[in-house]
Amino acid sequence: MQSPSHRRLAVLAAATALGLAACTTELDPTRAVDLDTARAELEAGRAIMIDIREPREHATGVARGARLLPMSQLRSRASELPADPTQPVLLICNTQNRSSLVLEALREQGYRHVRYVHGGMSGWVRRGWSVVPPGQ
Fold it and tell me: Helix (H, G, I), strand (E, B), or coil: what is residue 115?
């Protein structure tokens, strides 16, 4: 029997496949960070950034140092999520729709050290910040 949080991740993956996502526009600092903070934390090594976009999206470029863990694979690769509560984790997708939903599912599983990046990779690219091919 699946736990409620595993079912939620499965629903989120299905919603992504259908192009459905809830819109999140408010910035709650206990749940989200802005792009400037995310970039500074990643580059300083103070946070782990996990890019939950799908491989076809990763192909357009990723933030240097981000770990790639597609939302559709979260359930099967959940062990790759950092469990250390002292290690900040930042989730990033294209905007913040999927990452804010995944945050809620992870919070239900006890991940309190995870936040999402408000603005996502689309905001990153709009600012002219560099991206690298996946795997670099």
Answer: strand
